[in-house]
């Protein structure tokens, strides 16, 4: 989907989402990444990696993308979409690890408890990790 979007619009930056046509490409990319990412996470977990191994594979992929962000000049748009896509199977494997039965490799937590743990983790990250405001590219042109 991203390739088709780039071919049609010569950009896949979310900053270009300003027309109905580009917005359709954007939402199609979101939908495809959600569906295919969840399927990829399930497939990795079922092919011998297990839920922990799948989470490790996708977590390492995310760490590589973070390193590329901080220490290279790789396109930020490319890194954004790669990170966005990798978080889908990562979420699927972590979610499955938390709520699948013990005999299937999970922790057998109920969905409400698993959801509460994930919510606490997210809230902890928000509170503990420094936040800084972003600046829209068009705002910097006006300065």
Describe this structure in words.
- There is one protein chain.
- This protein is an all-alpha fold and 143 residues long.
- It has one domain (2-128).
- The protein is built from 5 helices and no strands.
- The protein is globular, with a radius of gyration of 18 Å.
- It starts with a helix and ends with a helix.
- The model has no long low-confidence stretch (mean pLDDT 89).
Task: Please supply descriptive tags for the structure shown above.
mainly alpha
Number of strands: 0
Q: Please state roughly what percent of the residues sit in beta strands, choosing from under 5%, 5-15%, 15-25%, 25-35%, 35-45% or over 45%.
A: under 5%
Give me the Rg, rounded. 18 Å
Structural class, from helix and strand content? mainly alpha
| Inertia-based shape | globular
Cα separation of the termini? 36 Å
Uncertain residue ranges: none
Q: What's the multimeric state?
A: single chain
Order of helices and strands: HHHHH
- The overall pLDDT average reads 89
The tally of domains stands at 1
| Proportion of helical residues | over 70%
Supply the number of helical segments: 5
Main beta sheet, described?
none
In short:
This protein has 143 residues and is mainly α.
Secondary structure blueprint with pairings:
Elements (H helix, E strand, L loop, with lengths): L1 H8 L10 H52 L4 H24 L11 H18 L8 H6 L1
């Amino acid at each position: 989907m991203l390739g088709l979007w780039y071919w049609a619009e010569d950009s896949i930056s979310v900053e270009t989402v300003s027309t109905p046509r580009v917005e359709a490409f954007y939402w199609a990319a979101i939908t495809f990444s959600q569906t295919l990412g969840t399927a990829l996470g399930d497939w990795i977990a079922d092919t011998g990696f297990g839920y922990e191994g799948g989470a490790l594979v996708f977590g390492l992929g995310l760490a590589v993308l973070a390193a590329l962000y901080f220490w290279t000049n790789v396109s930020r748009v490319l890194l954004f979409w790669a990170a966005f896509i990798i978080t889908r199977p990562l979420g699927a494997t972590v979610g499955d690890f938390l709520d699948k039965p013990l005999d299937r490799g999970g922790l057998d937590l109920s969905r409400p408890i698993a959801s509460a743990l994930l919510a606490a983790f997210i809230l902890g990250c928000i509170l503990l990790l420094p936040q800084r405001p972003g600046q829209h590219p068009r705002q910097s042109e006006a300065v």
